[in-house]
Amino acid sequence: MKQDTDMNRRRFLGQAAAAAGLTVAPGVMLYEVQARPADQAATSKQRWGMLIDTSKCSTGCTDCVTACKTEHGWGSTETKSNAEQQAQWIRKVKLTDKQTGHVQSLPLMCQHCETPPCVDVCPTGASMKRADGIVLVDKHICIGCRYCMMACPYKARSFIHEPLMNQKPHAPRGMGTVESCTLCVHRVDNDGIPACVESCNAKGHKAMYFGDLHDPNSEISKRLKEFGGEQIRADLGLNTGVRYQGL
């Protein structure tokens, strides 16, 4: 019985590797898809990123989370007869320095890594990174294995195990699939900015910045050059697209 199971597993991985044109081996990326906007190809000349100034991010503020829920429709809408699953594309976390007692609050989401572990372990290519650095999930080929959830060091992905209602046309979701922050790719491809950044600025907090990390004249690049920026778990060498100041 064990031999049959092992053979089935090898056959499945072999077929996935054949479809991707790569050989399965520990630590080797199985498949990377360069997703494209409808009317224009994504390009590696740009790398979209986000900068978060934690000194301007208050503990009680959840404006960025609310904006994301509204934009993508993943928030809970509970009634007496029905309760929609609460996913998690962005969340606020609290960091406490045990020695000094200093408390910080910051939003945490998919970090859009240059070398994303979720893409490395995905057996079907559903987890993918665009040429411009945005990490996405193709719901059409996601089989719900949740390998990507285990591989993500930021716990940034959610598995949808209940029926969904009132979905947004620009944010396709599906029962039995994994989802996470998309950097509001539908906005970015139309020269916009993520909803969380827009809301943060509109409310006057100005703790979040978005732009092209490859453009030295972009506001985000200028701020990173002047003030610096840290990665969460920089020791992993993932070169994240989301950076933080004030940690």
Largest sheet: 3 strands, mixed
The share of residues in helices is 10-25%
Number of strands: 9
Report the CATH topology name of the largest domain.
Alpha-Beta Plaits
Write the topology of this structure:
Blueprint: H1 2-20, E1 48-53, H2 63-72, E2 90-96, E3 103-109, H3 117-121, E4 127-129, E5 135-137, H4 147-151, E6 158-159, E7 178-179, H5 185-188, H6 195-202, E8 208-212, H7 219-227, E9 242-245
Parallel strand pairs: 1-9
Antiparallel strand pairs: 1-8, 2-3, 4-5, 6-7
Helix pairs in contact: 2-6
Give an account of the 3D structure.
This protein has 247 residues and is α+β, with helices and mostly antiparallel strands. It has 2 domains: 1-29; 31-245, Alpha-Beta Plaits, CATH 3.30.70.20. Helices cover 24% and strands 16% of the residues. It contains 7 helices and 9 strands. It has helices spanning 2-20, 63-72, 117-121, 147-151, 185-188, 195-202, 219-227, and strands at 48-53, 90-96, 103-109, 127-129, 135-137, 158-159, 178-179, 208-212, 242-245. The strands form 4 sheets. The chain has a 3-stranded mixed β-sheet with strand order 8-1-9. The protein has a two-stranded antiparallel ribbon with strand order 2-3. A hairpin with a 6-residue loop joins strand 2 (90-96) and strand 3. Residues 1-37 and 78-82 have low confidence and may be disordered.
